[in-house]
Design a protein that fits this description.
The complex is a heterodimer. By secondary structure, chain A is an alpha+beta fold. Chain A is 34% helix and 16% strand. The longest helix of chain A is centred in the C-terminal third of the chain and has 23 residues. Chain B is flat and about 70 Å long. The chains are: A alpha+beta, B alpha+beta.
Chain lengths: 559, 259
């Protein structure tokens, strides 16, 4: 295994220019960054969101008339998995104070804080507790914690600039002000951030940051955060119950219009269960597994946007869903690593992006959408992409990781990127000596359900946290702000839900009228479809096999 | 359908040419033959064969530990291990996933834990039963020297146990193979949390910043930004001073107004 002879030959072009590029970097000379106006043009010409046919107008629901990715519109313009006329709302299987939907970072943080407020909590999650994009976040978590050079003020400017100044300013203010507290909280739970011997945390640049404020735990920051939060939740088993393989497929209201629970679907037995709760925290994360425009994705297996769908159906508006984030550096070779995230920290540490001739064509720390658009331009317009072996018509560019050892000393790549180093070693590629072949990959749902800083939404009893929500990142999230988002807003939603439970008296008669209404609206809009949503799991069965699967429809085991 | 094969552990599969892919190889999923493209990971091979995975699939990127897999190749008794999402299929591999293993997990209050061997032994007394066979190390798909961190924990060197086990994905193969019935990965995370909380010095700069925020120092400057129009923000954004890539940790900006 390893690189093909053709690729090894092409790598020589990268090596030819490497010395000079390293010397320039050491001298503090960077490739010129694009101006704000140039950024705009680059996006409009090359970003996948701007391609003809990428988006379509929603015909139904609270954000009717707003345009979102086709794949998300398909999910919105589909029927519920439950029949409102057949479901027995008198048979409640679980009752709790707070129901958290989604067992990732935001959900678990919310569960912990709600529990501390005295609430009994159930976490319902589609796969295992912790199977979430949080687990896969690699590079780090932003927070202005170094007062001699940084503050929430500068963090605020960076977040807004990254999001093209369209972000919800109140959410941004909350996030950057709460950020140091989030780091302190994670540290107090035992997260092992990389530190100097005196306890000071290491921090690095990320794309679009003006100060080095990326805190990290090797190249598995998200995994460290996720497994720590999960471990803590498991220690509180008396008050935090976890239902795994039980995604929520519909929300329940009561007659007063308060959110009052959810319908869960046991993936293994195909039973549906009702949970009644005084407060619901929606934290189902993103939707990369919808594969917008057939892009490969870095997202975990369950990222199918379930929370978006059932929240929308219940009447919560969406925003910034027209903007999908393509991470600039997804692996494209070898085939088995396709779509795999190569953390932005590699570029933060100084690795250039170079084309087939070994030329640098973009500043490596542009915001993600600009960086991705520039790679797409280099391959599609300039024509200096590197052909991906065995995949006709597919191109990539080099991410020159060996520069890092030359800049920071031999052994840095292995020490700072242990997970990726081992992974590529398995494929016979030493990334401290050879560059990686990369191309943009579907990474993040910039937008989502509308919510306020404290997690509140327009439906009482319904709170939102993390990637399923939209607004804080505007149209483009910066690296290190998603782990921050889930921690900050997870905690705040948990706090709000905990308080709300105490103030809420009783739950009225349960209702799924909103589903009935939504079905009528679909009909009135002339949408005739056999689609049901949420999708729950993507289907990767090959077509030949599918033809013979006579008893299944649409996905997997839906009968 | 692939040719009907005996479910012998020495079965060598027979190829068929029914598919468009020309690089199909036989593998045996839980003893049953499927022909799959040779470049796929075990996980994608399951899906290619027609499985809709529910268990045994999480991040698909080698970090969540959902898809622990054991396999054997013809002509040898050796049991190999890997993550299904990271391991490429090989002809005639004989495999199964172990998506769950009921390892022991202690319930504890992190605040109360002392960083020593007694603590670990109190919550995981089975630690003392480790017989040093090294099967755990040999069965770790992340190539962690598992037995070394178990020894470190037993010696009371919690910090070393934490550091050695840092890249653990908690897939559970070590526990599945351990003759002393240890749940190594659960012991490891307890050591890491003790280290992060009680051994490593606390980051005081984080507390300092929290204090500053609590005094309301940034409230007014931030509110000003919240109420700024786009043009003002763009200007402030463009003018913000960049900390150079190679700047030392102590670097300070020229303008200190909003620090």
């Amino acid at each position: 295994m390893g690189y093909t002879p053709d690729l090894l030959e092409l790598i020589k072009q990268v090596e030819k220019t490497r010395q000079i590029r390293v010397a320039r970097k050491k001298a503090g000379e960077e490739f010129p960054a694009l101006t704000l106006d140039q950024r705009k043009i680059r996006l409009e010409k090359y970003h996948p969101d701007y391609r003809a046919g990428a988006l379509r107008e929603l015909k139904v629901g609270p954000s009717k008339g707003y345009t979102v990715a086709q794949e998300i519109a398909d999910q919105f313009e589909a029927k519920s998995r439950i029949d409102p006329d057949k479901i027995n709302l008198n048979e409640v299987h679980y009752e709790t104070d707070v129901l958290v939907i989604g067992g990732g970072g935001a959900g678990t943080a919310a569960a912990l804080i709600a529990e501390e407020a005295g609430a009994k909590v159930i976490i319902a999650t589609k796969l295992r507790h912790g199977d979430a994009n949080t687990m896969m976040a690699e590079g780090g978590i932003q927070a202005a914690t170094k007062s001699w050079k940084d503050s929430p003020y500068y963090h605020y400017l960076d977040v807004m600039g990254g999001g093209h100044f369209e972000n919800d300013p109140f959410l941004v203010k909350t996030m950057v002000s709460e950020a140091p507290k989030a780091i302190g909280w994670l540290e107090s739970l035992g997260c092992m951030f990389n530190k100097w011997p005196d306890g000071k945390m290491f921090t690095l640049h990320g794309a679009g940051t003006c100060r080095k404020r990326m805190h990290y735990a090797g190249d598995m920051t998200g995994a460290e955060i996720m497994r720590t939060l999960r471990d803590e939740a498991r220690n509180r088993i008396k008050n935090i119950g976890v239902l795994e393989f039980a995604p929520a497929v519909e929300l329940l209201l009561d007659e007063k219009g308060f959110c009052s629970g959810a319908v869960l679907y046991n993936l293994e037995t195909e039973e549906y269960f009702l949970v009644k709760a005084k407060a619901i925290v929606m934290a189902t994360g993103g939707s990369g597994r919808l594969h917008m425009q057939k892009f490969m994705t870095t997202n975990h297996y369950g990222a199918t946007g379930d929370g978006l769908v059932i929240g929308y159906r219940m009447g919560i508006k969406v925003r910034f869903l027209h903007a999908t984030q393509y991470h600039p550096t997804g692996a494209v070779f070898p085939e088995q690593s396709e779509g795999l995230l190569i953390t932005e920290k590699v570029r933060g540490a100084g690795a250039n992006l170079v084309n087939i001739d070994g030329e640098q064509f973009v500043f490596e720390r542009e915001p993600r959408d600009i960086e991705s658009s520039s790679i797409i331009r280099e391959c599609e317009k300039v024509g200096k992409g590197i052909p991906v072996p065995g995949q006709k018509g597919k191109f990539g560019v080099w991410l020159d990781s060996p520069m890092i050892d030359m800049l920071e000393g031999t052994g840095t790549v292995e020490r700072e990127f242990p997970a990726k180093f081992i992974l590529f070693k398995r494929y016979g590629i030493d990334i401290s000596k050879l560059p990686m072949l990369i191309y943009p990959t579907l990474h993040y749902q910039n937008g989502g359900l509308e919510y306020k800083s404290d997690g509140y939404t327009t439906v009482p009893g319904f709170f939102v946290a993390g990637e399923v929500g939209g607004g804080v990142h505007g149209a483009n999230r910066l690296m290190g702000n998603s782990l921050l988002d889930i921690t900050v807003f997870g905690r705040l939603a948990g706090e709000s839900a905990g308080k709300f439970v105490k103030e809420r008296s009783d739950i009225g008669k349960l209702s799924v009228d909103h589903v009935r209404q939504y079905h009528k609206e679909l009909e009135a809009a002339g949408i005739v479809t056999d689609r049901v949503s949420p999708m729950v799991l993507p289907d990767y069965t090959n077509l030949e096999v599918k033809k013979r699967q006579l008893t299944t429809t649409y996905v997997g085991s839906l009968r | 359908m692939p040719a009907v094969a005996q479910q012998s552990t020495e079965q060598i599969g027979t190829l068929n040419d029914a598919s468009v892919r020309t690089d199909l190889i036989p593998i045996f999923i839980m003893g049953k033959q499927y022909d799959v493209p040779s470049t796929l990971t075990i996980q994608k091979a399951f899906e290619y064969a027609g499985y809709q995975l529910i268990r045994g699939c999480g991040c698909r990127g080698g970090i969540c530990g959902a898809c622990a897999t054991v396999y054997r190749l013809p002509g040898t008794a050796k049991i190999n291990v890997g993550l299904a999402c990271q391991t490429v299929v090989q002809p005639n591999m004989y495999l199964t996933m172990i998506p769950f293993f009921p390892a022991n997990r202690a319930i504890y209050d992190l605040d109360d834990l002392k960083p020593d061997a007694q603590t670990v032994l109190k919550y995981y007394p089975e630690l003392a039963k480790c017989m040093g066979c090294n099967t755990c190390t040999k069965s770790c798909p992340m190539e962690i020297p598992v037995m070394e961190y178990i020894s470190a924990a037993l010696r009371g060197d919690i910090e070393q146990a934490a550091e050695i086990s840092m890249s653990c994905v908690m897939c559970g193969i070590c526990a599945a193979r351990c003759p002393a019935e240890l749940g190594q990965y659960n012991i490891a995370i307890m050591c890491r949390r003790i280290t992060g909380k009680h051994i490593k010095p606390r980051a005081e700069h984080v507390r300092e910043m929290i204090e500053r925020i609590n005094t309301g120092r940034y409230e007014e400057p931030l509110n000003k930004l919240v109420n700024s129009d786009i043009e003002t923000l763009r200007k402030l954004y463009v003018e913000r001073q960049m900390e150079p890539h190679n700047a030392p940790e102590e670097w300070t900006p020229d303008k200190k107004d909003y620090l």
